[in-house]
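Narrative of accomplishments. A recurring question from our advisory board has been how the design workflow behaves on a single, concrete structure rather than in aggregate. To address it, we present the structure tokens for one chain from the evaluation set, followed by the sequence designed for it. No filtering or post-editing was applied between the two.
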């Protein structure tokens, strides 16, 4: 999936002549900490952050006085995974999208990317969640899927986390179309998988609460 489908047009870009006070007001209204700056020819000329605005000379200072090097930008055809990686690395709440000639198209918000990942991982679907760990040498996604689905269980989504230095294990999180995890846990452990966590259908209310709290945090 490319970011073209996630472009947000409601949050307005800033103009170079906008004041610091105006820019801070827009950020507060739309709950972001970064905004693109676009000139009268619809060309992207920079990005300003909330920190830059707060450190400016005064509330009437023009945004153009805060512009630095060429900003980080995504093209409409960029994959959402690549854009997410960049936004996380640089702690961005928004990222401008522009054509190759630097013509501004819109922006992508971190909130919208999170919402897209939530859909991709079937978080709104009913089902149980199981997290397992396996050593890299024993990792086989096809074998894992076969083991689960031959027991009349369907995988709604699957996420893999590569080993960290502390564990050395691959963490795999599965969303399944079952209400209880007891049989699945037993089956996985029987086949040598280490089950580190599981959440049954009954835990959905608490999980939903945590998701909503996290989404509110992203909006801050």
């Amino acid at each position: 999936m490319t970011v073209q489908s996630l472009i947000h047009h409601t949050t307005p870009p800033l103009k170079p002549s906008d004041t610091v006070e105006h820019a801070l007001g827009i950020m507060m209204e739309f709950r972001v900490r970064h905004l693109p700056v676009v000139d009268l020819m619809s060309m992207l000329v920079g990005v300003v952050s909330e920190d830059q605005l707060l450190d400016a000379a005064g509330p009437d200072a023009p945004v153009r006085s805060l512009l630095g090097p060429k900003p980080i930008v995504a093209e409409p055809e960029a994959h959402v995974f690549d854009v997410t990686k960049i936004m996380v690395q640089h702690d961005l709440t928004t990222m401008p999208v522009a054509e190759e000639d630097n013509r501004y198209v819109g922006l992508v918000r971190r909130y919208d990317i999170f919402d897209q990942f939530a859909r991709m991982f079937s978080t709104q679907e009913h089902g149980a969640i199981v997290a397992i760990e396996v050593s890299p040498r024993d990792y086989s996604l096809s074998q894992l899927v076969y083991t689960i689905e031959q027991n009349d269980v369907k995988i709604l989504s699957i996420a893999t986390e590569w080993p960290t230095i502390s564990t050395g294990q691959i963490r795999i999180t599965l969303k399944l179309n079952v209400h209880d995890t007891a049989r699945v846990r037993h089956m996985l452990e029987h086949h040598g998988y280490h089950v580190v966590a599981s959440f049954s259908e009954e835990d959905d209310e608490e999980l939903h609460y945590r998701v909503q709290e996290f989404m509110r945090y992203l909006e801050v």
